[in-house]
Amino acid sequence: MRSSRRPSPEVAGEEALTRHTDYGGERLEEGDLAPTPHEQFARWLDEAARRGVYEPNAMVLGTIGADGVPQSRTVLCRGVDERGFVFYTDRSSRKGRALSAHPVATLLFPWYALHRQVIVTGVVDLVDDAESDAYWDSRPHGSRIAATASRQSQPVDGRDALEARVRAEAERYPAEIPVPRPERWGGYRVAPTRVEFWQGRTSRLHDRLVFSRPAVTDPWRVERLQP
Ligand SMILES: Cc1cc2nc3c(=O)[nH]c(=O)nc-3n(C[C@H](O)[C@H](O)[C@H](O)COP(=O)(O)O)c2cc1C
Description:
single chain, about 230 residues, alpha+beta, Pnp Oxidase, Chain A, binds flavin mononucleotide
């Protein structure tokens, strides 16, 4: 028998699943766009930060596993310029293995509070050692210890085992000793071939403006897509 206090599976989350929010208020016109997608992205990222979006540089990274199955997870964007979008990770992780097999990715910035999303598709390359070192050196000591102790995406025999590895690294590298960047840890850059700027509009008649180019050396073209 069902407890009267617990919602039945049919109604759990129903309010959230059936709500209709109207995304009105703002628009995105062709004439508003910056000449390049990274400049347009920088404008929207600044706005997302100014308007209080939580972790505005968080993006959902989509990759293709060696088995052909799609994968996604959130990472933080740590740089954007005309070359592309940069993030840092353990290259021996699941995503690292996927990117070795298929060096292509999608990035999705979900700025729901602004009724906006940006979706990037591109080809992926390694960030060079000097740039990876510079970012590694900017990280807090504790984050460097954790990244050194953790073999990202590998199974571990419980939280205690993980914490014991962190303690061992912390003993090797007390606060005043710099933690060297593990060879397996570094950056990736996604050089875009497609960047979509999506602005929610009233009655689901949204604005979708897409920069695309066949290859990263080609010029950009812009087109509007139906919502
Ligand atoms: C807000 C947020 C930010 C994250 N940032 C990063 C990041 O910059 N780099 C990273 O390796 N993992 C980051 N993670 C953890 C990843 O989502 C993921 O769990 C981890 O990278 C392992 O993914 P994989 O097994 O697919 O390789 C973040 C998670 C969240 C929720």
